[in-house]
């Protein structure tokens, strides 16, 4: 058309070529038996969290029942959960770690 009046064919919507992959929260759960120092050690060792922040997160879990310790790709989150669960079991502590898809 020589004029563009009323032309509704102009495309303004763009489709992303690559969708961003979903991210997963890794959660640490409270229990009555796992020593506080063990939880702090887990946070330092598997999540590269500094001592002061590790103590803070551990106390949040202790008081509130759970806390998000990090957000990762599905593969990394699965690895973290497996590492924590294996380390807890090997040390005979009931510490539970799980993952949940982010909204
Ligand atoms: N509640 C535990 C205690 O009093 C400490 C604890 C904190 C356990 C965090 C698990 O994810 C946890 N010894």
UniProtKB/TrEMBL annotation:
Q: Signal peptide: which range, if any? A: none
Domain Adaptor protein ClpS core per the UniProt entry, residue ranges: 20-98
Gene Ontology biological-process entries: proteolysis
Q: Which InterPro entries match?
A: ClpS (IPR022935), ClpS_core (IPR003769), Ribosomal_bL12_C/ClpS-like (IPR014719)
Q: Which Gene3D superfamilies does the record associate with it?
A: 3.30.1390.10
Q: Which family does it belong to?
A: Belongs to the ClpS family.
> Under which name does UniProt file this protein?
ATP-dependent Clp protease adapter protein ClpS
Gene for this chain: clpS
């Amino acid at each position: 058309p020589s004029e563009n009046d009323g032309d509704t064919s102009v495309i303004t919507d763009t489709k992303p070529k690559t969708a961003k992959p979903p991210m997963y929260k890794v959660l640490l759960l409270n229990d009555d038996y796992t020593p506080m120092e063990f939880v702090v050690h887990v946070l330092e060792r598997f999540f590269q969290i500094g001592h002061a922040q590790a103590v803070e997160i551990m106390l949040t879990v202790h008081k509130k029942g759970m806390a998000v310790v990090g957000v990762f790709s599905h593969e990394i989150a699965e690895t973290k959960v497996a590492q924590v669960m294996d380390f807890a079991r090997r040390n005979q502590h009931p510490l539970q770690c799980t993952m949940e898809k982010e909204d």
